[in-house]
Amino acid sequence: MKAKHLLLPLVILLTSQNALAASEQAERLAQESIIVDGHVDAPYRLHNNWTDLTQGETKREFDLALANKGGLNAPFMSIYVPSSQDGTVQSAQTAHQLIDSVEALVARAPDKIAIATSVADVRSQFKQGKLSLPLGMENGAPIGNSFETLREFFDRGIRYITLTHAKSNHISDSSYDETRQWHGLSQFGKRLVGEMNRLGIMVDIAHVSDDAFYQVLDISRAPVIASHSSMRHFTPGFERNVSDAMLKKLAANGGVIMINFGSSFVSQESRKWYDDYKAASEQAAQKYGKDSAELKQFKEDYVTGSPFPFATLDTVLDHIDRAVQVAGIEHVGLGSDFDGVGDSLPEGLKTVADYPALIDGLLQRGYAKADIQKILGENLLRVWSEVEKVANNSAQMLPAGYDEHSFANPDQVKVTHVSLQLTANFKKSELEGTATLTFDRVQPNADTLILDTRDLTIEGVNSGGQLISYTLGKTDKNLGTPLYIKLPKASNSVTVHYKTSPKASGLQWLTPAQTAGKQQPFLFSQAQATHARSFIPLQDTPQVRVTYDATINTPKALRAVMSAANDPNAELDGRFEFNMPQAVPSYLIALAIGDLAFQPMGKRTGVYAEPSWLAKAAAEFADTEAMLETTEKLYGHYDWDRYDLLILPPSFPFGGMENPRLSFITPTVIAGDKSLVSLIAHELAHSWSGNAVSNASWRDLWLNEGFTTYLTYRIMEAIYGKERFDQEAVLGYQSLQHTLASKTPNDQILAIDLAGRDPDAVFSNIPYEKGALFLRELEHKVGRENFDNFLMQYFKDFHFQSITTDNFMAYLDKTLLADYPDKLDRARIEQWVFAPGLPEGVAVPQSDAFSIVDTARSNWLAKGDAKTTVNPEGWTVHQWLYFLNNMPKQLTPGQMTDLDAAFNLTDSANNEIAHSWYMLAVTNDYEPAYDAIYSYLVRIGRNKLVAPLYAELVKTTKGKAMAQKAFKEAKPGYHPLTIKKNESVVFAD
Ligand SMILES: [Zn+2]
Ligand SMILES: [Zn+2]
To answer: What is the CATH architecture of 693-834?
Structure first.
């Protein structure tokens, strides 16, 4: 602890040290049971006043000799950091020093003491006769805003964290602090609970406010502890203790209350004495001065005249009785607070040598041996094991609907509309201007709006002409920097003046040389997953949907377009206005500026591109209107008015981005023969799955991409026939197999665990192809027509909402699982969604067109001479890809030369075929292709095409040298995401 009552002067009085003599039975029980103490403040006392606790008797309440005498086995060493250090770098420093001091203690007697980081450690060290020192952190301030720091402390051994201490901190309100800035937990605090569950750190609710307590219990996926709290029943009004109702809730969640021994925790009389003493001292301090001799004398006289009423061992036993009565024997433990409450410990419980006296008291009150052992340690060890289990299974546990990748607090204040006034400065590679955010107060008393930002320069915030105060929080590597804005009293909007950084992760500024036309610069944004915050300060979480409008100022001659209503006839006068009437998640706000022209393709479809690409693109994607009509027939009305395409320069890191009304598309799919247009079907399908029904957090990405991939196959089948569907399905399945083989089990799960990780670094085609395969199985089981009806209704029911995997599972329970109980099995569905790999007996896609290819390949492998053994007349691009992708890994130089000579693969104009061939060329060190590979890497920035090549190249010294050279040359033209994904691979040691 270290709370108010800690100020209790040590001069109070010397108390009788004559502990009640414990019975022999109690002594024996103390030695043969594992005694865990939830809270011993030895480290902070060492920190202030060092003494070697391993050598003989000290004057402390805890040392090795006393612990052995009392039969204590696993006292949690409190890594306590005072609230006065909250928000400073000193805070983490202190925590590290305290851990150092525990390590130093262990190093002084390594044969007798060891740190314990698991239940298994405690048990095995108990058998070896060693004292275990587990670590608990009291006050989460040292973590700052960083899950990385949290991991660092976990790695150092911290196994519980008391969220706050004497003051409300950035995680939680405190029971001791009347300021209730969060009304419970902060948004970060809520995320922190989830992350502690994931890592396997117990959540300690000692010290938090009641509101925070209840929120923790709602969120935590594992039982929680109160490491050193007593029963409020005996100390009415003392929020630091736990009420009966709270204890019931704690027990229902499986947790444990560890009873604090301190007199002022267990006795109302002691509490009152302390309150009176404090009030009198404060008065005296005013009269005599803070550090005066008179004040000191006053305090001594006070204590002599009115001695501190110590509680007794019996008082503590009363608390244990009450806790057992309220919560049951499984939920009570001991959290003495030795070395933490000054000289205020009860008569008979003065040091860790006194556990036998406590055990004796329990025996006398009729507790059975097994029950006493539960209280002494087994209950805490059970909770700790549960926490370890949850951490191991964390990939299968869902967060309670909050977004781990945003600082925003939409549960308190929700932004509903964003209004942008921005000027694009191509010379400085900056957007500059304002964002005006209109919001709803979800909690009427909320006073802070928290926005996400990354690398933004905030120049000021105002509302209705008044300046508003704001602060920027600590920057997290993955999340960026939170912007805290004090809410204006009389208004529901704020305007942020800001500019972006030239390195904004969501913007790419291209020089004229990097465009097709070579005359004008180009800018495009890419907001998914968490990059909108790098060009707009906003609540960057898919849980929040906003409408938006924008005025964009550009250099004359350029055209700006957005994921909003675009006017293709807008004059090129350097000013463009947009309005987006449908509410979208932030990741769908998009902007591009360049030398753009427009060509219609159908009634509702058209294409924007640089003039030299325009005709080619319009021809390639001419089927877009038909795709739109087909999708509407299958899944319901298209709700976004127009569907246009924007063709970006080749550095676009993705195939496409489903920005509503205006999909952003890589030019690498313009093949001249419509062979790669499934990408358009995919981006279009997102108008239903993703844009209309959105994932609520990035863990639920599969709800966007799995559904969209499934829809894509269906659209392709409807437009181009079953044969093409079969071919694409086989290729999709094969690429899924490759991905599965390369991923750890946890990353093969659809509802992937991203907590503490950067989504960009983790995303793969698992949510796409595995998600689609899952939905295809559902379709096969219930029948296509029924499944189509289900999907149509699903899109209706969740129209313009953001949902979690939880929501989806609950929806399945009410719909397909209820309607087809004999055809569907929930356990198998859970396996699809929450387990790695694929369930047994998945229907593997087949294509007849590929058996011809298999025959050709085998023929060639047996006899050589590709010109005569392989007849590719009429082969689709997919057959070519299948032909190449399924070659044996090792081919001879002669075989490579033969294939290339027959089919001119090195010079293939199809970017996908070229990619497959180059992969073979690198693996087999086929020199003649290297120049082409080099220019391919420099020309194209689409990650799907370049990342595998880099990964393959770096496997050899020669390849690595080439990869590095190509990367350096290409880097100025690469998108930040392509750089991020490949740079560490290419330059790895
Ligand atoms: Zn405490
Ligand atoms: Zn997609």
So the answer is: Orthogonal Bundle (1.10)
Q: Which CATH class is domain 405-595?
A: mainly beta
Mean pLDDT, rounded, of the chain: 92
* Greatest Cα pair distance in the chain: 111
Give the pLDDT band (50/70/90) at residue 394.
low
Q: Give 401-436 pLDDT, tens digit per residue.
A: 568 899 998 888 999 999 999 999 999 999 999 999
What protein residues have CB closer than 5 angstroms to ion ligand 2?
Answer: 705, 708
Contact 453, 536 (CB under 8 A): no
Between the CA of 339 and the centroid of ligand 1 the distance, in Å, is: 11
Residue 55: helix, strand or coil by DSSP? Answer: coil
What is the 686 CA–ligand 2 centroid distance (Å)?
A: 6
Average pLDDT over residues 217-246: 96
Round to whole Å and give the CA distance between 740 and 861: 27
Tell me the fold of 25-267+309-394. Answer: TIM Barrel (3.20.20)
Q: Which tens digits make up the pLDDT trace of 896-952?
A: 999 999 999 999 999 999 999 999 999 999 999 999 999 999 999 898 899 999 999
Counting ligands in written order, which one lies closest to the CA of residue 687?
A: 2
How much distance in Å is there from the Cα of 197 to the middle of ligand 1?
Answer: 22
Give yes or no for a contact between 925 and 889, defined as CB atoms under 8 angstroms apart: no
- Ligand lying closest to the C-alpha of residue 3: 1
CA of 688 relative to ligand 2 center, distance in Å: 11
The CATH number corresponding to 597-683 among 3.60.110.10, 3.30.2010.30, 3.40.630.30, 1.10.10.10 equals: 3.30.2010.30
C-alpha distances out from residue 208 to 41, 165, 236, 263, Å: 18, 7, 17, 20
- Residues forming the active site: 683, 768
822 alpha carbon – ligand 2 mean position (Å): 32
Which numbered ligand comes closest to the C-alpha of 684?
2
Considering every ligand atom shown, identify the ligand nearest to the alpha carbon of residue 81 and give its number. 1
Q: In this predicted structure, what is the pLDDT of residue 651?
A: 83
Q: What is the pLDDT of residue 428?
A: 97
- 642-658 as b/e: b if 16+ CB within 10 A: bbbbbbbbbbbbbbbbb
CA of 683 to the centre of ligand 2 (A): 6
